[in-house]
Amino acid sequence: MTSAIYLTTTEPFSGKSIFALGLMNMLASKAERLAYFKPIISGSKKSRDRRLELISKQFNLTQSYEEMYAFTRKNAIKEINNRNEAYLIDSIIEKFNILKDNADFVVVEGTDFTDVNTNVEFDGNITVAKNLGIPAAIILNGADRSTSEIVDLALASANSYLSRGVQVLTLIANKVQPSKLDEVKRRLRYVLPESILVNVIPSHQQLSNPTMGEIMESLGAKLLFGKEFLTNRVDHSIVGAMQLHNFLDRLDQNTLVVTPGDRGDILVGSLQANISRNFGKVAGVIVSGGMYPESTIVKLIEGLETVVPVLQVEDGTFMVVTNVNQIRARIAPNDKDKIALAIRLFDSHVDEKALSERITSFNSTILTPRMFQYQIVRRAKSHKKHIVLPEGNDERILKAADMLLRQEIVELTILGDRDEIRSNISKLNLSMDLDKVNIEDPAISPSFEDYAMTLYELRKNKGLSLATARDLMHDVSYFGTMMVYKGDADGMVSGAIHTTQHTIRPALQFVKTKPGVNTVSSVFFMCLPNRVSVFGDCAVVPNPTTEQLADIAISSAESAQMFGIEPKIAMLSYSSGSSGSGEEVEKVRAATELVKSRRPDLKIEGPIQYDAAVDPVVGKQKLPNSEVAGQASVLIFPDLNTGNNTYKAVQRETGAIAIGPMLQGLNKPVNDLSRGCTVIDIFNTVVITAIQAQES
């Protein structure tokens, strides 16, 4: 069962409150702990978001106001302008997951600001929904639209979400003319996929038109009289600038009168007409121009039993009327009548049973790069491990270490000259707390002699002398690896300066491989726009044999499982199935059969071409009966030449994030960096090393 849903609209004032209130009311009968979350709010810390106030008060939510949002609009725009979109999404994911962990169901509300480019905001809502991994409920504004226009808007909106991998549970056409309900519902059901539940809610005047209280707040008006009637609904507005008898002819039900402050005749006439059986109800009066009614008029009004709201504004009559016409109705937290009406509309026009069934049956298979990175960081934090970074004289290492320590993800030892490292930390203006990091210089370390003697004992049968062991222990790669071997660190990450061979040679010499594993190999976690794939081997084994290729496939599948990715293995080649032949194809075919015999529980296909492995359409055409074709998550390359070039091509051409390489098959985690690595590459590699350490 999904535990959240994303409410989104294509434009402001689509009537989101109606669906939000009704949905929360429905969920309250099924779940004990409800939460409401709005990633980006329109208000500020001083001016609270209206809908959050409404939902929190109506359903007595236990979460604080600050827990109900991640960013104010102002702060979100600042992060976007600074190109910190990743931080923005990560923060939203983190806040959402905190709520999700403490609630049975979370309703998430997207943005619908009035002064933001609609296409940009719409795309942003899709991105957030996708990275939260939750389905969407799309609410359309059907007011003043023909049936064809509603259908076109619905189709375009639904396709935008579906094409980006976000499931749409329901589409709600709101504010539809009552006479069009059946026609709109019929046509929407015809054009939309059956998986999308169609609901149509009619327009309702009481919800569509503002109250005197809303008008007073929007105009910043001063209340002169009639506080108890601020909930009066305004259906029409007229200007009282003509003679009284002509003015009275224009009064209709729920009319707002706008008149200059010196027109006492219009003001008194309006109040009298309101209590007369022969005229429609007057909702209220606005006196304009900054003029206060004459004292005798005020005295007369004060003596009346029933006085509708009388507001005073500084603006002229024309400006007031213009501003009033732009005011949109909202549902206030204390407006019990509107709240009850909204819930009744939902109950009457939304198929609650079908909606509940879709919520219950939803299961997301999408794993976005941001979701993956959030999950691995959270997992690393859950059981902190100690990682050693041998290359403390590299600025990238220090910057990554600063990020890791500030987020309290791991404990760190950095190898190198203490004074040099401290100087570089100061020069880079890093906030690293030196009390929280262990800086170790191998040459003067208290562990140096013990480490050298241990290396000598491990390698003396290979002809290693004690003097050579001491020389090697001055090498940071050997010293860092020995820390891992002795249990003084849980894992090591190196290679920003050193070659792959320099980094992993000590691990191969004395950390050794796990029992039953004959091949040390590597994988990259390729964070593509719509999924995370595992690529192996792209860094270690140049030209694997059949047995090594099978080892790589099994190890890569286990690595995928370790990180929450269901392994569906594609053994890549230049042909698919039985269509081709040749020495290289036969090696892949034999490796595939070897994996099947050793691990019959794994889903595997090979030989298979890359397009047939990842493209559902091509996969179905070439291998229609395969449970891997078109949906492979673990891609095994036939040799290092192919794998290394492919991962770099995919990374450069698609903008994918490549996390790794992660070495697999060793008894304890030691991971290699590319010498062209970025700070984020180092950060991510340390995180996955920490997770490996949790599993070893």
Automatic annotation (TrEMBL):
Compartment list: Cytoplasm
Main EC class the enzyme belongs to: transferase
Entry EC number(s): 2.3.1.8
Pathway assigned to this chain's UniProt record: Metabolic intermediate biosynthesis; acetyl-CoA biosynthesis; acetyl-CoA from acetate: step 2/2
Gene Ontology MF terms in the entry: helicase activity; phosphate acetyltransferase activity
Keywords annotated in UniProt: Acyltransferase, ATP-binding, Cytoplasm, Helicase, Hydrolase, Nucleotide-binding, Transferase
Domain Phosphate acetyl/butaryl transferase: 371-690
Name of a matching Pfam family: AAA_26
Catalytic activity of the protein: acetyl-CoA + phosphate = acetyl phosphate + CoA
Domain DRTGG: 214-326
Family statement: In the N-terminal section; belongs to the CobB/CobQ family. In the C-terminal section; belongs to the phosphate acetyltransferase and butyryltransferase family.
PANTHER family the record matches: PHOSPHATE ACETYLTRANSFERASE
Domain notes: The N-terminal region seems to be important for proper quaternary structure. The C-terminal region contains the substrate-binding site.
Subunit text: Homohexamer.
Task performed by this protein: Involved in acetate metabolism.
Protein name: Phosphate acetyltransferase
